[in-house]
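Ticket #350: bound-state structure for magnesium ion.
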Amino acid sequence: MKQFFVWVSVLVMSLLLCGCENRAPERVQSVDTAMGTVIQQNLYLSQSSANCTGEILELIRELEEDTLSWRLETSEVYRINQAAGSGQGAELSEELSQVMERCLKLTEDSGGAFDVTLGLVARLWDIDSWAAGLRTGEFQAPDEQTLTQALALCGSHRLHPESVTDAESGLKLVLYPEEGAMLDLGAVGKGMALDRILEKLQEDPGVLGGTVSVGGSVLTYGMRPDGTPWRVGIADPDDPSVNLGLLSLEGQWCVSTSGDYERYVESGGMRYHHILNPATGRPADSGLSSVTIAAKDGLLSDALSTACFVLGREKGLELAEQYNVEALFVERDGEIFMTTGMEELFQALP
Ligand code: FAD
Ligand code: MG
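RESOLUTION: The complex was predicted; output attached.
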């Protein structure tokens, strides 16, 4: 009798273990806020134990606190901006050194349309705070003289980067920003977040696939359990609650959209949005309502969506082709233009 119970127990245990191995992937979904925007996660996991969504959220919050914030004293951007005019160098982390190298190259390749030193001008407009309802009352656009003075203090030539070789982590940058120079990585922050998330997912064998959206930037990763592609909606700039089309994406992609319809303030019949033309210091007016870039990494998709928005359709297309990414442009009259590769990914909705 005793032997019989032992055998039954072994059988039950074996069945349970087999059941675990063949268990269907678990779908985990979450919606949170971080970095002043909405984070939506939709992951398929082979093991339910991992607190994957919580760890990803933590990673995004760390990025804001340790690197991107221009208000928190704990961040690298804050420290760099504090160093401006002091003659003291600000040493960057390995991650930020690489990001800055790429940003400076993008500034060059975009003919200055993309410029992470626009901080002073961006704070003058402060469109993000107006759009978020943090500032109320009558919006006043900065006057021409103030803008001209602020613009004179912007420009990557005022950062004076120097490379140092660190025995442990390799190449690092030290910046010696001039008086008034103010770094603003808002145009690549969400892309940087996607790159960190991608690294985390790649390290976790329990993650089979999923999508993570950080505001206007979306990462797709791995496979959907049913084998169908991931779908990423492209908002209609005239009515962002509706999608004008869908991208069908297999495996790893980073998709970023920059548009004049998300963060803006209206005053005197004018719409002032948050993407600035470094040549004028004013909201970019290139005839576009939005640009979507699909690339293999987040920094590139985010930076290029901003750069192409400022450049307009023709020059934007050239830049997208130079970087070998897919791009979709929505003009103010609603016309859509895209790279040939994007035509294979995009389906318009009726
Ligand atoms: P994108 O097109 O990717 O970027 C636009 C942003 O990039 C602008 O808001 C401006 O900051 C900057 N920018 C504008 N024109 C150019 C240009 N030609 N070239 C390069 N950059 C340009 N982000 C931070 O990084 N640090 C913060 O401390 C921070 N605090 C915030 C506080 C509040 C209350 C809010 C609402 C937002 C904050 N953000 C911060 C987010 C940031 O201000 C932008 O709103 C966000 O990065 C825009 O991302 P996007 O993808 O919509 O636009
Ligand atoms: Mg961007």
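RESOLUTION NOTES: The mean pLDDT is 92.
TICKET STATUS: resolved
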